[in-house]
């Protein structure tokens, strides 16, 4: 079909449905982007300990949430979904900047968030003792890189990574960073020291104060209960005192511990 403004807007008007999980920061990214763009969507909660046939059919490759279905077509992978939303609805609250280099830079730091920072934070959560100390050092090294970008680099002088308003990197980094406080509480390990990372700290404060973010992030008590359950399970599986995932691939993604049977050890991962 020829791509005209008319049929493009018809396509954009097709219904949106999100398959997600309530404690999944990847799901929160998509919920937040949909809210920022003011888009109506239906939501299907997945039990990650017992995934629906529909989820497996929609995301046969990774079998994970989130999956966004738009007009009957399914799209997995949170960052790809966010970019799709921005491509399909470029006018309302653009998430990516107009400049090609700035767009690429935002994508680079999103990759960093998923490739380096997230796994390091997950490793702190899933370990104890020396393994945990090493993981904390990794988190601090990664936060120092972000702090340096905010202080002297690409994002210098900005309230948000996206500028005056939140953009792609804010959504990606922000939906994940609220876990830092939860993990601090559960592990007793200090991760974000406001003195060491003042700009990151103040960015996170501003991000968490946004109405759309407050609407998206579950209540802290619920997250704490969930995180305590997952940590208990991880450490239990690893054997007393010798924490699980020295594996940093571990992803907290299973359904709430209280609501779902523990997943097999091999499936346990700490993605934030
Ligand atoms: N790279 C994926 C990660 C998604 C992901 O890890 N989802 C978790 C929930 S937070 C999941 O579905 N886990 C179930 C599983 O691993 O089987 C994205 O960005 O969407």
UniProtKB/TrEMBL annotation:
Transmembrane stretches, start-end: none
CDD domains cross-referenced by the UniProt entry: GST_C_Tau, GST_N_Tau
Top-rank lineage group of the source organism: Eukaryota
Annotated InterPro entries: Glutathione-S-Trfase_C-like (IPR010987), Glutathione-S-Trfase_C_sf (IPR036282), Glutathione_S-Trfase (IPR040079), Glutathione_S-Trfase_N (IPR004045), GST_C (IPR004046), GST_C_Tau (IPR045074), Omega/Tau-like (IPR045073), Thioredoxin-like_sf (IPR036249)
Region (Disordered) location: 245-265
UniProt key word Transferase: yes
Family the entry assigns: Belongs to the GST superfamily.
Protein name per its UniProtKB record: glutathione transferase
Lineage, uppermost ranks: Eukaryota, Viridiplantae, Streptophyta, Embryophyta, Tracheophyta
